[in-house]
Amino acid sequence: MSVKAPRISVTVAEVLEVNPLIKRFRFVRSDGQPMPPFSGGAHIVVEMDDHGTRRLNPYSLMSVPEDSSGYSISVRRDDTGRGGSLYLHQHVKPGMAMEIGYPVNLFSLDQRAKKHLMIAGGIGITPFISQMAQLTSLGGRFELHYSVRNRELGAYVDELKALYGDRIHLYFDDEGDKIDLNRLLAGQSFGTHLYVCGPKGMISWVRSTADAAGWPKGTVHSEEFLAPPVGQPFTVELAQSKKTITVGATQSLLEAMEAANVDAPYLCRGGACGQCETDVVSCDGHIEHNDHWLTDEQKASNRKIMPCVSRFGGKTLVLDR
Amino acid sequence: MGMEFNKETFRKDFTYKNSAKAIKRFPFPFYEDSYMYSVNMEPHVPGPKGSVFEPMFDVDEHYIAEMQDRAMVLAEDPLRCQSLPHMTLAGWDLLELIMESKARDYPEWFELHKDGHNWHWINRPLGIDQKFTFLDESTLPYGPMEYITRQSQGDFTLQDQRDDNLWIEAGMVTTQADWSLDFDIGMSFHEWHAPVPRAHELGVFDRALKFLLKLQHGAPVRRFNWTLTVDPLLDTSPENYPKWGPMRTDIRPENVGERMYLRVELQTLHRLPRSNAIAFPIRCYLIRFDDLVTVPKWGRRLHRVLRDIPEDLATYKGFLRNRDSLVQWLSHYDDGAPTSTGWMAD
Known about the structure:
The complex is a heterodimer of chains A (321) and B (346). Chain A is an alpha/beta fold. Helices cover 19% and strands 34% of the residues of chain A. Chain A is built from seven helices and 17 strands. In chain A, the strands form three sheets. In chain A, strands 1, 2, 3, 4, 5, 6 and 7 form a seven-stranded antiparallel β-sheet that branches. Chain A has a five-stranded parallel β-sheet with strand order 10-9-8-11-12, with helices on both faces. A five-stranded mixed β-sheet of chain A has the order 14-13-17-15-16. Chain B is built from 13 helices and ten strands. The model of chain B has no long low-confidence stretch (mean pLDDT 94). Classes of the chains: A alpha/beta (321), B alpha+beta (346). Chains A and B meet through strand 7 and helix 2 of A and strand 6 of B.
């Protein structure tokens, strides 16, 4: 059973070009009511009607959690992706009506922490922006280390410096900067929690370094949303609904089920939360497991699949849905 | 104001009584003629008019008396209300949820006026008029959770979410069915549910935890729990067991109808927005057997449920020693006629 919150009808209030790759979108409620409050690190799912294709993409909220006048997200354009970010960049204009989901937090602050040590890479900065705003109003201690490709693509570096001063540490790849992680971790006081959001490589680097340095598992937090990858079209049989569906090249299995009016649970749509986990009835072929929810053993067994990001190649795949 | 609040007690002379209206809207918890644990959760959406599901938080004729009883329990034992330091934000979330809900659902009794963080709360039944600063504890007489739960029927716990688990780390617990916040505080989901028989083997807690970790703000859920209590005592706590445990030896066939109560908990679960914690209100409703059997379907069904319930569940719920007397008494109200599914009266 899954219980979904109602969707929120919004109007696009502002579209701002942050840099050549990133645009910021601000949504206000179309009924004029206040937005629900949220917690730092939360994301929303934005629903798009991309010329007949229904897309539901998750984006971290980067506005101030207590600001109920609207929500802001930042979207990095992915020219080789499935089209969600391109749609937002090219077609979404102020005044447009859209639908979003209630905020969901899969990357929340541990309120027990004596200090929050944050490590961001690129667009991974967005959840930290709302977290730092929330910590500021609650009086929490934090320190951010933010790595970007170069000064031009360093989204929000000036704003963050102006707001938080020397609590913000910047690293520019093309200037040869590199986070000295071993030294940084060694210098933290007892009770510090570590948070990382950014590219896959950065997350595993931070996690393995912290692990080797003896940080308890529960003190290290990460968030990585995967965009559903593009791939070859494939066919799936849905046993409960007695339907056979075809998943298009730039469509996810979850989206294909939704398009066929099959009720499938979801929350993050990025392979992280586990909500869409589905039993495999039979599989003659190869499941391309792209999530980081299932264990390696589960993936190898081919008994489970995460339809939000995973694909299939081969003869037949039958799912219990 | 539309409703008279009862003058009644939940201790000593036990003058607690349900009006005819309260009996009619009693949340009878048995969907069918038998009972077993399950993940019996459904969306907490407004129910039929007049039912206990109509508002987000039901306020009924027992409101003032229950709040007076809570104050007495707290005066004797302040540890019934505890909040670990990191749960204060969740307490504010709960305060906001309850104040907004009550002001919306009962505008004649409750008002909430907001000007930024300057809030003004009016609770007419309890005679409270409070101006305070939201998120500033120094402007309230108690912490936010204690402040609002001294004005809300039912127990409340707050669960922090981390490490793919839920941790019971704050609560106001004075109307409980034999469990202790002071004992459980800080425990994980499976730890605080450890004493429940059978449900672990059925996988109920694994499934329930998985479900709750994904609970969404804006989509609360509800379920029932139940037990039996001798006399309308709200505070059946382990701390006070010596006071109420022996009352169970007083039950005889001739006083079952008068002294036995079905105790129903309407439990709801709410994701809290600012803290990402989960609030768990546990609202207790009590009904005397004599009153319960005035609804023929309920009399028939309770007889069948208690007659057939496995012994370990009867032991856990604390009525095994009286089960034969109860079943015998209830059998007079069961003519063997079929009952309709669902908990509503026929």
